[in-house]
Amino acid sequence: MLTPPPGNDPRQNRILARLPDADYFRLEGDLECVPLALGQVLFAPGDTLEHVYFPTSGIVSMVFTTEDGSSAELAMTGKDGLVGTPLILGGETTTYMAVVQSKGSAYRLRAEIVAWELEQGGSLQQLALGYVQALMIQMAQGVVCNRHHTVDQQLCRWLLLSLDQLPGNQLDMTQELIANMLGVRREGVTEAAGKLQAAGLIRYRRGQITILDQRGLEARACECYRVVRTEYDRLFGLNPAVPVKGRVRPNPATLRRRAEQRLLNQVRPPRADAVWDAARLVHELEVHQIELEMHNEELRRAYAEADALRARYADIYDFAPVPYLTVDARGTVLELNLTAAIMLGIKRSQKGLHRLGTSLAEISLPLFVHFLDEVLRGMKKGYCEVVLKPTPRHPETLVRLEGVPDEEGVECRVVMTTIRSDLPGQADRRRQN
């Protein structure tokens, strides 16, 4: 892993900067700083993408090359975005090439980490999809610009978009490379650059362009640059959604590194007189202790989230308007919600002492016994229709029982649906398979 250059912070990338602190700190230990060398190909057509890159400086172009060798830039990205949109959209490969057109650096995340984060539906997903939308606007405006506007206007748009991704006003770029990016002849770029230099808007030396008057360049550009810039500003003006708290993402591959970093952040008195071996042993023990503490922190968070989900499920189960209950092979009621307790006329505190058969009309008992045996022994879903005895709060009722077995075939989870209540005399008792 590259040691980040001085002052190179992951949050110089605007997507990472917009993440809430909790989401950012969860990703921080997995962000790998990598250099972006001029001309470096991050991925080629047909490659399986293994990383998503978040540039903090430099520019990366998405370039399509035809069979005859000619090429054109589809879009560019830098500190405003990311490289690896196929992974954001659920794909793994691409038909274009991502190549560095201006050197710099980036932080990257492994594909499986990005996939996990996107599955949570949180702020990274919102920001990434928003960026993809802005990128599509850039591509669409590029098509319009290349078709309807002059080479001078195309060059102004391209220079301004490039300038937005760089900290200064200087681009290390040859006219031949710009021509390839725009998909036009080099002579056309040379003539257009000469006009801009004569107007005092840029200064061009071999392989280097300096923007002298950005506002003048914007005035000379077509509306395509403003459309793209407005979309990016709108994107980063949105507040990321605050998602429901998700699961803790396991990342054992970086646990050691994160533990080492936490140890370095702790203030400790120097041990100048320690023997190297002893000091190393103490260091290892301290790192392992911190690793255990970090494991415990993740376990505590996971337990807390599991408890919260369990409580939420219990509320949904208890107050559902449909009767739910669980019985064993003898028909003993193990669990039931409030609606089921009212229909059966029993107290929930007595659920382990009550058999469902005692709430059924005598004629329905054989049907129920056969139904229960069929579900638990056959390990399959089953149903039958039985008559519930009247209670002080419910008349005699014909109900449909639908049951499914648990994983071990020990318990049957049942839902009751009312077919008919207040039956006159002895209602027909039916069973369907």
TrEMBL record:
The keyword Transmembrane does not apply. Keywords: Coiled coil, DNA-binding, Transcription, Transcription regulation. Residues 15-104 form the Cyclic nucleotide-binding domain. One of its GO terms (cellular component) is cytosol. One of its GO terms (molecular function) is DNA-binding transcription factor activity. Residues 278-312 form a coiled coil. It comes from the Bacteria. PANTHER family: CRP FAMILY TRANSCRIPTIONAL REGULATORY PROTEIN, HTH-TYPE TRANSCRIPTIONAL REGULATOR ARCR. This is Cyclic nucleotide-binding protein. It comes from Pseudothauera lacus. The lineage of its organism: Bacteria, Pseudomonadati, Pseudomonadota, Betaproteobacteria, Rhodocyclales.
